Amino acid sequence: MNQDVNTDALRRQLLFHLRQWRGAGIDWLPHGAPLEVAAASAQPLLPSPPDGRGSEGADSPGLAFEIATEETVTDLPSVEERRIALATLAAEVKTCTRCSELCSTRTQTVFADGQPGAELCFVGEAPGADEDAQGLPFVGAAGQLLNKIIAASGFTREEVYICNILKCRPPGNRTPLADEAANCRDFLERQLALVAPKFIVALGGCAATNLLQTTLSIAKLRGRFHDYKGSKVMATYHPAYLLPHKHPEKKREVWEDMQMLVKKMGRKLPEKT
């Protein structure tokens, strides 16, 4: 029984990673020696490639096998397996030196706040000074306002997942550069694949344009849902943009967006007391 359970877990993890690689444009993998694991089924996980790549006697022996295109992956790894994978990814982020300026000026990386399996994820721009000091996203003034938005929408901070486009603070809290966002893109995509939220709120233009890979402004993106790899995305203004010394009048539009999101999620807003 334990062997069947372990084999099934291994199969789910394998198919999950194959789906991620396929989404990244990888359609073949190096051929290696078979694992000494008892087969759970006589049927192979992946069909033999039609062109013979990686098969015995192929013109290019040992090259690779193709990723199955007809296999539908419906089961994610367990929450605990994804929690471990996220911790491993966070450790990888800590050692990242892809952006020389950012890694030389950061106090620490800021990976996320939340757990895999959260139905709702908020994606911001980048850590600020408070976040860089504490190692958690949205803990400064903008974070306090985000907490109020989350609570007013009927959620607790503990039940949502919060992260940023960048994992390091840009000097002076400047807007992330295009190459910096590109360098962090792989981390973000792997992170969101493991969390697997059904809904994402992109906070601010930087988050929305980078997540959705668009040049449209928040004004044109907000008020409707977009798609990110199967997750429904609502783009709205960043909490920092709503602070008293900036554009507090935009709070009404953010509230309209959150009301639309809550309705889409099949939830009800808390009753006013």
Structural notes for this entry:
- The chain is of the alpha/beta class.
- It folds into 2 domains: 2-66, no CATH class; 79-264, Uracil-DNA Glycosylase, subunit E, CATH 3.40.470.10.
- 39% of the residues lie in helices and 11% in strands.
- It is built from 9 helices and 7 strands, in the order H-E-E-H-H-E-H-H-E-H-E-H-H-E-E-H.
- The strands form 2 sheets. It has a 5-stranded mixed beta sheet with strand order 4-3-5-7-6. A two-stranded antiparallel ribbon has the order 1-2.
- Helix 2 (79-94) packs antiparallel against helix 6.
Sum this structure up briefly.
With 273 residues, this protein is an alpha/beta fold. The chain has 2 domains: 65 residues, no CATH class; 186 residues, Uracil-DNA Glycosylase, subunit E (3-Layer(aba) Sandwich).
The radius of gyration over CA amounts to 21 Å
Give the strand tally.
Answer: 7
**Which percent range fits the helix content?**
25-40%
Query: In the CATH hierarchy, what is the architecture of the largest domain at level 2?
Result: 3-Layer(aba) Sandwich
Mean pLDDT: 83
Strand % is 5-15%
CATH topology of the largest domain: Uracil-DNA Glycosylase, subunit E
Count helical runs.
9
